[in-house]
């Protein structure tokens, strides 16, 4: 008979103690060692407090066959559950206040692109574009305005393509001459080239936003990090009314990873909060040359995609990299997250690569620089009853939830809202199930995407193809989008019994490359899809209903039973 071993951890514990309720361990590392030595199920109770990341798990930390090791907030699932935070941040205290009201702090070698004040993410100080008359050249830009910017300025290029937002760092500024960091700027000039309806564009163009200089501090509740003196960085924060430097908790994220698991199996995490990381990639020499979704260019091959022969084409990265995750699983089996929160993170929250049988249940994802969940090349993952809110704050192309090259993965009964591009994305895969999700407020910033977007081959028949069923998609917002978007040669898909309201377009049946063996059946929407008056031969379109009465649409939403279920 297998018994459950109970292990306790507390910030005021002692790793030389036995790990009992009365004499807990002090660190997760010590608890991991104890779990390795135990037989049967193990529960590690983590008491209230903020613990530094990263927590690291390997194959040696796996549960024994038939057992499970659980790391959970003490009192998980009860009204007395402790608040346990795994943090990548550092508390900033001892501010001096300048005559202009700006708080200033010498932070040494600290490098970050993010800041948290009393649990609230604050934005970097910014202006809209480069002042003056501006021209672009091979090394950067020239303006007739005199600039006195310090080191650390970053350019945002929103809408290089309608679905793309790049970030490039400035190397130096001398009066009106802006020299950009290399090779990022040269790569950008090679990557972003297109011709559309007779209009040709070349390079990243002018930035739409300029971030991170103390001179931009005009909006209360914003910050800038001055990197002018290597190793002697200075943090500037313009407080909101009523904030007191002696009573305000300021956290500067300085790590990019909170938890990694490689080759591990049979581990659960319950009731934990993962918070306060940064990601310095956009600040570096290689920049962040976004193309689509979570993908970005890091040198290498550049391909040309012809949309209309002799008329429209564009260049794209041929070997994309993926935005990394703060919580990363690689080659794991049976890892579970239940009732966890992921917040104020500088890149993707949770990334799963390879492996199988990951479960994410009843979790919350909010205030993220990139997306919430990325599944890549994994089998039988389940994401259910979770909430994704306010993501893509730095990297607007990031989907709420994305799947690529997965097998038999399910995304069901989640709520996804306030997303700057696509809500849920499925790339080429097999056996994907996107069921009874409520996606609202997608496509808030970038264009050409959808509340639910699926592209490419989805299997070899309808038996192992994709099913998008019972979802409710509302308020899909930018001027060019489709609430349900089957795109780029999507094949072997069934899109059924979904409800769509208030989208620029409800769905589209004509795309390039064309759809193949795609079924649209029994959907309810408030406008006819694009192409429904001339349905392609490769699309089955039947029993779909267009309604305009709000009460009828309300009833259809209720029948869909979309969104998280109460447990």
From TrEMBL:
<dbReference type="InterPro" id="IPR012334">
    <property type="entry name" value="Pectin_lyas_fold"/>
</dbReference>
<dbReference type="Pfam" id="PF13229">
    <property type="entry name" value="Beta_helix"/>
</dbReference>
<dbReference type="InterPro" id="IPR039448">
    <property type="entry name" value="Beta_helix"/>
</dbReference>
<protein>
    <submittedName>
        <fullName>Right handed beta helix region</fullName>
    </submittedName>
</protein>
<dbReference type="InterPro" id="IPR011050">
    <property type="entry name" value="Pectin_lyase_fold/virulence"/>
</dbReference>
<dbReference type="InterPro" id="IPR006626">
    <property type="entry name" value="PbH1"/>
</dbReference>
<feature type="domain" description="Right handed beta helix">
    <location>
        <begin position="325"/>
        <end position="456"/>
    </location>
</feature>
């Amino acid at each position: 008979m297998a018994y459950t071993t109970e292990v306790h951890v507390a910030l005021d514990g002692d790793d030389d103690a036995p790990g009992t309720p009365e004499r807990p361990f002090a660190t997760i590392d010590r608890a991991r060692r104890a779990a390795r030595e135990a037989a049967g199920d193990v529960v590690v109770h983590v008491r209230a407090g903020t613990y530094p990341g990263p927590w690291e798990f390997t194959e040696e930390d796996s549960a024994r066959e038939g057992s499970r090791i659980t790391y959970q907030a003490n009192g998980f699932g009860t009204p007395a559950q402790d608040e346990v935070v795994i943090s990548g941040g550092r508390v900033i205290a001892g501010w001096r206040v300048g005559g202009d009201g700006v708080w200033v702090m010498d932070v040494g070698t600290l490098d970050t692109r993010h800041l948290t004040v009393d649990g609230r993410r604050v934005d970097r100080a910014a202006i809209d574009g480069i002042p003056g008359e501006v021209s672009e050249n091979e090394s950067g830009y020239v303006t007739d305005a005199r600039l006195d910017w310090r080191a650390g300025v970053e350019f945002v290029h929103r809408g290089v393509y309608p679905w793309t937002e790049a970030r490039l760092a400035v190397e130096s500024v001398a009066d009106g001459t802006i020299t950009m960091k290399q090779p990022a700027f040269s790569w950008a000039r090679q990557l972003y080239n297109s011709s559309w309806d007779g209009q040709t564009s070349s390079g990243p163009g002018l930035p739409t936003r300029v971030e991170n200089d103390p001179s931009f501090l005009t909006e209360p509740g914003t910050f800038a990090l001055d990197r002018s003196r290597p190793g002697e960085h200075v943090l500037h924060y313009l407080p909101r009314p009523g904030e007191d430097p002696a009573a305000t908790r300021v956290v500067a994220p300085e790590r990019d990873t909170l938890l990694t698991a490689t080759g591990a199996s049979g581990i659960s995490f319950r009731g934990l909060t993962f918070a306060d990381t940064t990601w310095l990639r956009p600040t570096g020499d290689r920049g962040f040359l976004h193309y689509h979704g979570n993908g970005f260019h890091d040198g290498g091959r550049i391909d040309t995609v012809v949309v209309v022969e002799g008329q429209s084409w564009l260049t794209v990265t041929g070997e994309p990299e993926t935005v990394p995750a703060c919580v990363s699983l690689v080659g794991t089996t049976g890892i579970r997250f239940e009732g966890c929160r992921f917040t104020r993170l500088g890149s993707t929250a949770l990334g799963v690569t390879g492996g199988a049988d990951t479960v994410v249940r009843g979790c919350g994802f909010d205030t993220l620089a990139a997306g919430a969940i990325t599944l890549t090349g994994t089998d039988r993952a389940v994401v259910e009853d979770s909430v994704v809110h306010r993501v893509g704050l730095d990297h607007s192309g990031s989907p709420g939830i994305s799947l690529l090259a997965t097998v038999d993965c399910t995304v069901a009964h989640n709520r996804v809202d306030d997303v700057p591009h696509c809500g849920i994305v499925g790339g080429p895969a097999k056996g994907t199930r996107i069921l009874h999700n409520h996606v609202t407020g997608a496509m808030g910033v970038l264009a050409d995407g959808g509340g639910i977007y699926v592209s490419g081959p989805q299997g070899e028949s309808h038996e192992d193809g994709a099913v998008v069923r019972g979802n409710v998609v509302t308020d899909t917002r930018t001027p060019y989008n489709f609430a349900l978007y089957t795109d780029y040669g999507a094949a072997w898909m069934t899109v059924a019994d979904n409800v769509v309201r208030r989208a620029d377009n409800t769905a589209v049946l004509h795309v390039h490359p064309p759809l193949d063996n795609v079924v649209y059946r029994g959907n309810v929407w408030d406008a006819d899809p694009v192409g429904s008056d001339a349905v392609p031969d490769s699309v089955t379109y039947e029993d779909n209903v267009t309604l305009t009465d709000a009460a009828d649409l309300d009833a259809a939403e209720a029948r869909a039973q979309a969104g998280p279920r109460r447990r």
